[in-house]
Amino acid sequence: MAWYDEAAFYHIYPLGLCGAPQQNDYNLTEHRLEKLDPWIDHIHDLGCNGIYIGPLFESVGHGYETTDYKKLDSRLGDNEDLKNFVKKCHAKGIKVIFDGVFNHTGRDFFAFKDLQQNRENSRYKDWYCNVYFGGNTEYNDGFSYENWGGYNLLVKLNQRNPEVQNYISDVIKFWVEEFDVDGIRLDAADVLDFEFMKMLRRLANEVKPDFWLMGEVIHGDYSRWVNGDTLNSVTNYVMHKALYSGHNDHNFFEIAHTQKWLNDAFGNNIEKFHLYNFVDNHDVERIATKLQKKEHMLPVHVLLYTLPGIPSIYYGSEFSIEGRKEQGSDASLRPEINLEEYKDYIKNDRVTSAISKMGKMRQVVKTFAYGTYKEEMLTNRQYAFSRRLVAGNNFLDRSLDDGYDNILVTVNNDDNPATFNLDAAGIIKYVGLFSGKEVEIFDGRVEVEVPANSGEIWLRPQWIEKIKELG
Q1: How many independent structural domains does the chain possess?
Q2: Strand runs labelled E in 290-360
Q3: Are residues 214 and 291 in the same domain?
Q4: 327 and 384 belong to one structural domain
């Protein structure tokens, strides 16, 4: 058991949220990171106990063309600003993970600048992949090199070079010592060298207890990356796709079958199954934009918070803001937001309020982190499953004197209410998290109605009381 197994994350793209200019001239330090201070209370009120923030370090543009791994981007402030931000988060019980952009550097990084100046005589020529002094680039370097994604702005590091490994290790140690960071999200982990990731995992086990390594992986067998030798978690892109298309197509079979595929990939071992679940992020269009029916925002987020995995909210999406890729730009996905405009949303907005309740629910009910998953009912438009902890599980709450817990999750993507008749699994009474409605058990079954385009989480009454205590 580690803090991240029980976490609900909030994802911040700081250059966007803080309103930084798109280009960095390196000449002026602007203390924009301080704009995040009121967001810390908001994140706490949402029930999130982890923040993934990045990219953070000095770069020339969008943040992933790193210039200096040990200096906060001057468009955001200085290292004291970042140190204070993490300290304030920790004071609220919120862990912080940084973006680790270790697959490539920017062209202003010191090693690449030395390569430009000294060419064949540069001591850093082997820090990069496939440097060829008989080639050239659109920058007229007089040599060519391997890049990331076809962009020569992003120069690919040679991760098998011991000097590169030592340098990145030193960077991570610096982040822990200087900023007290709690983990790293590895950018482009699906193209990182596996031996390099094993080195990072060994280092993570040394630098701080429960230091989390989460990787950006799009497709593939996630168990290749998530295991005892490499990463603790990866981005669950297959479920991300299923969550929005399963609603748009009125096809809950896609979501349920995706969950079965994931179960099979990890041998139904829930303790290895803490993937990073999300419905949108800084690279994909906002969930409110992707959904054809805005009413589906609630059932989508119910599934995000209750299916196996670690849920994450991308800043602003709790307010159902929209954002789409325009003319090849991600700028509209990464806007500056005035939090004051949304100050009453947790209390008054259907989706924001539900996210807040579910965040607090996950703090109280460990069954979502460690419980088994079982499909209970499935049609194109209705879907129910249970999450269960049983006697003998080390994570079972001691207050459950009958030795087990069972939770029922029901979602409905239809324009009409739906009735579910489900196995009560021995529980005497369930209460709806959102409705507060109590339902009794008859002949071992429970019958519940879920409104149109909605969802409900059916919990023991004692969990409802404990959630209320959190406010």
Answers
A1: 3
A2: 310-314
A3: yes
A4: no
Q: What angle do CA 203, 214, 196 make, to 5 degrees?
A: 45
Please report where in the chains the tokens 């106990």 appear, as a residue: 49
Distance CA 136, CA 355 (A): 51
Strands (E), 55-196: 57-59, 66-72, 95-100, 104-105, 147-148, 151-156, 183-186
Instruction: Tell me the CATH number at 123.
Output: 3.90.400
Say if strands 310-314 and 9-12 run parallel, antiparallel, or are unpaired: parallel
Structural domain including 62 reads 3-105+157-364
Residue 325: phi and psi, rounded to 5, are -70, 130
Look up tokens 């249970």; give the residue. Answer: 386
Same domain? For 20 and 82 the reply is yes
* pLDDT by residue, tens only, the chain of 471 residues: 899 999 999 999 999 999 999 999 999 999 999 999 999 999 999 999 999 999 999 999 999 999 999 999 999 999 999 999 999 999 999 999 999 999 999 999 999 999 999 999 999 999 999 999 999 999 999 999 999 999 999 999 999 999 999 999 999 999 999 999 999 999 999 999 999 999 999 999 999 999 999 999 999 999 999 999 999 999 999 999 999 999 999 999 999 999 999 999 888 777 667 999 999 999 999 999 999 999 999 999 999 999 999 999 999 999 999 999 998 899 999 999 999 999 999 999 999 999 999 999 999 999 999 999 999 999 999 999 999 998 655 655 655 656 789 999 999 999 999 999 999 999 999 999 999 999 989 999 999 999 999 999 999 999 999 999 998
Q: In terms of domains, do 190 and 261 share one? A: yes
429 contact partners, CB below 8 Å, separation of at least 6 = 438, 439, 440, 441, 460, 461
Whether 338 and 429 map to the same domain: the answer is no
- Please give the biggest Cα pair distance in the chain: 81
Residue in 18, 185, 24, 32 with CA at minimum distance from that of residue 108 = 24
Residue closest to 351 by CA, chosen among 278, 291, 293, 301: 301
**Whole-structure pTM value:** 0.97
**206: phi then psi, degrees, rounded to nearest 5:** -95, -35
The owner of tokens 């330090």 is 29
Residues 206 and 330 in one domain: yes
Q: Which helix (H) or strand (E) holds 446?
A: strand 445-450
Q: What is the distance between the alpha carbons of residues 407 and 459, in angstroms, rounded to a whole number?
A: 5
Backbone angles phi, psi at 226, to 5 degrees: -95, 105
- Domain identity same for 121 and 161: no
**Last-in-domain residue among 129, 156, 183:** 156
For residue 15, the domain's CATH number is 3.20.20.80
